[in-house]
Specification:
By secondary structure, the chain is an alpha/beta fold. The protein is built from eleven helices and twelve strands. The protein binds glyoxylic acid (2 copies).
Length: 320
Amino acid sequence: MRAPMARCFVTRVLPGPALDGLRDRHEVDLWPDRLPPPYEELAARAAGAEGLLTTLTDRVDAALLEHCPDLRVISNYAVGHDNIDVHAAAARSIVVGNTPDVLTEATADMTFALLLAAARKLPEAVDSVRDGDWLTWEPGRYLGQAVAGATLGIVGLGRIGSAVARRAFGFNMTVLYTGGGPGSGAVRRVPLDRLLEESDFVTVHCPLTAATYRLFDAEALGRMRPSAILINTARGPIIDQEALRDALVAGQIGGAALDVTDPEPPPPDDPLLSTPNLIVVPHIGSATRVAREQMAELAVENLLAGLDGRPLPHQVRVAV
Ligand code: GLV
Ligand code: GLV
């Protein structure tokens, strides 16, 4: 049965036609700007809404939800949902949806792009050509690290971690993992300490929770090999950025490549941005056209289902 028109606040313009389908069914208040609504504006608009379509840049906390008497569903345009207080939502019988699966391959591709770029010093090489420093073919410059046959440590072997493991097999890598995930004969589960000590590349694919906040602190980084490269396409706060910067400046680890930082973006004067052997890209793990359009489709399906009182195609389950 079709529910009557509901009021929805959508916090950002999304790629593809999905939002047209939402407009056909419901009253849509769409935030049109490149920057997300400031918290106060989000709170004010959410207060009158029955459905919210948010992105990972929108903080939906308990204080905000307190003033949303009609809100029934929050559809997050992301697989991660650390920006939403899902417990406060559940306490108010507000269902929360997310967009897994459709972004898995895109994010795994980006992980490998960063891994290869860091291993083979691509940013430096590109810069040196632009700077007119390509004098001749040189035997001893831009020497990077071998990826084929190296050991990859995956922290969190869920959907994305497993997709990264499949790519690693194509590179004949030894794959270790720690944390959640089903595993298989081809990957070896080891404690985090061992993974850090044995891996040439360490890649982060766990969600951000109280348990993973700053999982990569000075001690964890200190366990990594001096040549090791750390890749993060999950969430910025999983790494203690000051400790990472210290480790890179001291040459304690070989390099790092971050798709995510804390905060996002880092302020322009953040020393992180001038740290040696560090690549930072602007949270583009899922940024293929197909993935971002499918995320929009799924986010709208989740929202429509929630407004109709049907189960969401992808509902965030809250452990109580
Ligand atoms: C992106 O970071 C996402 O969680 O979808
Ligand atoms: C490099 O291009 C080589 O031929 O060794």
